[in-house]
């Protein structure tokens, strides 16, 4: 039962990343609030307020209808305009920066809440308009409910002004990269603070039984703590061999287990692997390296030709790698000082190679970019700690590769000599 509840809550959490989740939720709340107001009107709240505070009640039927009709048309227009602006933002981000940025921009909570407020306002005004009696006297008119429609409209206008400000900031690449960096930084700091790994705490897994994946998609999340509890319960160790964030095909090995397990136990373990067709930095910090690298590469393309953005991207990559150096290449999940689950992670060598391979390929002809990359690698080398001494050799190899490619692409001898003098 516990596993089923955890599975349900994980799926519910995933729904929050959908662009329609919060608008739908707020729309339903607006619908419920409408009927709360209708219930209060049936109890005579407008009649009571008309006698006590007449200024709070709209007591003219034509005025109420005109207001509500205008509000509905205005809110629909605002919502269409806002949706168009979001589409323009997504199109520009995809064309000028990277298509990988789209999931993060679509999942912007603030914009979803604003869209939901519009929908709630439209539903509220529509149902209150329908409720108005065609030939009723002033006490049958939902005057107090109409006052709330005015408040709804004022809030929607304020939200629209905020939306225009937010969208103008959201479309700037520096703000996009800064958001990606902050989310990734938060994720890496959490992993660094909570990771445990001691050499020899987990046995060799070459002869273990393998479970083949029945699904295809990006491995978005692995609930290592819950898998560890299952492993402890059945006195078995689990080795998750797929790196989170990578695409898993059907029949690929998903995990290995130490001894024979019942089918229902394996099914319980599989439930704690979440697959998705899209990727989010919140779940996988490696995606931040990919996104920022692609922004730099796209900025250096002939169609964009924006080396300033590429230089900014390298600054963010330098900060991310400085954090990644502090993290170990392997991760184990412990219960009572016993390692029950081993989680595969992308190692530092593979990560920096993937980033540098792209940047070297597309930026090796630009002296300024090569200089910036070289300084980044030298900085990383200077902050490597003794326990991660092997990272120095990896960085030396990347420095050598960068200089080699630069010598092949740059024809000016003075530029080459300058680059070599830095190294």
TrEMBL record:
It holds the Pfam family DUF2254. The keyword Nucleotide-binding does not apply. Keywords: Membrane, Transmembrane, Transmembrane helix. The chain crosses the membrane at residues 20-40, 67-90, 111-132, 144-164. Coiled coil: none annotated. InterPro entries: DUF2254_membrane (IPR018723). The keyword Metal-binding does not apply. This is DUF2254 domain-containing protein. It comes from Mariniflexile gromovii.
């Amino acid at each position: 039962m516990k596993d089923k509840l955890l599975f349900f809550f994980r799926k519910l959490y995933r729904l929050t990343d959908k662009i329609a989740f919060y608008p739908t939720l707020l729309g339903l709340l607006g619908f419920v609030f409408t009927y709360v107001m209708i219930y209060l009107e049936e109890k005579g709240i407008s009649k009571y307020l008309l006698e006590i505070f007449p200024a709070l009640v709209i007591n003219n039927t034509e005025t109420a209808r005109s207001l509500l009709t205008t509000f509905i048309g205005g809110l629909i227009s605002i919502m269409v305009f806002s949706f168009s602006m979001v589409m323009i933002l997504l199109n520009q981000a995809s064309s000028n920066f990277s298509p990988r940025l789209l999931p993060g921009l679509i999942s912007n909570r603030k914009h979803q809440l604003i869209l939901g407020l519009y929908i709630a306002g439209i539903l509220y005004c529509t149902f209150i308009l329908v409720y108005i009696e065609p030939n009723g006297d002033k006490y049958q008119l939902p005057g107090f409910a109409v006052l709330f429609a005015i408040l709804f409209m004022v809030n929607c206008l304020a939200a629209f002004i905020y939306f225009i400000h937010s969208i103008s900031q959201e479309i700037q690449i520096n703000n996009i990269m800064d958001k990606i960096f902050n989310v990734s930084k938060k994720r890496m700091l959490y992993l660094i603070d909570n990771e445990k790994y001691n050499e020899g705490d987990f046995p060799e897994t070459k002869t273990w039984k393998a479970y083949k994946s029945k699904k295809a998609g990006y491995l978005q999340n692995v609930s290592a703590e819950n898998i560890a509890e299952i492993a402890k319960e059945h006195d078995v160790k689990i080795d998750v061999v797929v790196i989170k964030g990578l695409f898993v095909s059907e029949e690929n090995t998903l995990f290995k287990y130490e001894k024979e397990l019942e089918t229902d136990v394996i099914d319980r373990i599989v439930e704690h692997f979440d697959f998705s067709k899209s990727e989010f930095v919140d779940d996988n910090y490696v995606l931040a390296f990919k996104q920022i690298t692609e922004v730099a590469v796209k900025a250096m393309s002939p169609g964009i030709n924006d080396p300033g953005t590429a230089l900014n991207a390298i600054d963010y990559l330098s900060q991310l790698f400085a954090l990644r150096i502090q993290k170990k290449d392997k991760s184990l999940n412990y219960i009572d000082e016993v390692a029950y689950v081993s989680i595969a992670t992308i190692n530092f060598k593979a990560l920096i190679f993937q980033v540098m391979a792209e940047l070297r390929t597309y930026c090796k002809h630009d002296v300024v970019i090569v200089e910036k990359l070289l300084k980044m690698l030298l900085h990383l080398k200077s902050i490597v700690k003794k326990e991660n001494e092997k990272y120095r050799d990896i960085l030396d190899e990347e420095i050598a590769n960068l200089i080699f490619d630069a010598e092949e692409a740059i024809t000016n001898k003075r530029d080459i000599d300058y680059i070599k003098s830095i190294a």
